[in-house]
Design a protein that fits this description.
By secondary structure, this protein is of the alpha+beta class. It folds into two domains: about 35 residues, no CATH class; about 60 residues, no CATH class. The chain is about 15% helix and about 30% strand. A hairpin with a 5-residue loop joins strand 2 and strand 3.
Length: about 130
């Protein structure tokens, strides 16, 4: 994903602001005259909250939320996960054994390790 940098008008003083986004979703801006600064804060509405907003816009309520396409929290690309297993193969009691060991989950694009993010993803995969 490509981002942008541009000058805009400050919403507080009308001066010149520098607005920057690395991915078009998260926007940061700083007024170069009064110092006002703002950042995007991401959040998701619950189904009930969204239906209240839809009702205010004279729209029909939804039965369930549309699931957004998962993206990597580090690079912003569509998420493809690599699971790297640390297998240990050893000889014991006259036969071969395998110990699975730890598993690391990484983004296929940027190779950053997915720690807390992976828990919810694995729950969704288990439901398939």
């Amino acid at each position: 994903m490509s981002g942008y940098s541009e000058t805009t008008t400050c919403p507080k003083c009308g001066g010149e602001s520098l607005e920057h986004s690395a991915d078009h979703y998260n926007v940061n801006a700083i007024c170069l005259e009064c110092g006002y600064e703002y950042h995007t804060v991401e959040s998701m509405l619950t189904l009930e909250e969204l239906n209240e907003e839809r009702k205010a816009c004279d729209m029909e309520p939804l039965e369930k939320l549309k699931i957004p396409e998962p993206t990597c929290p580090y690079c912003g690309d569509p998420l493809a996960i690599i699971a790297q297993h640390e297998y240990q193969i050893f000889w014991e009691d006259g036969t071969w054994h395998r110990d699975v060991g730890d598993v690391e989950y990484k983004c296929n694009n940027c190779r950053e390790e997915l720690d807390g993010e992976i828990t919810e993803i694995l729950k969704q995969v288990d439901e398939l």
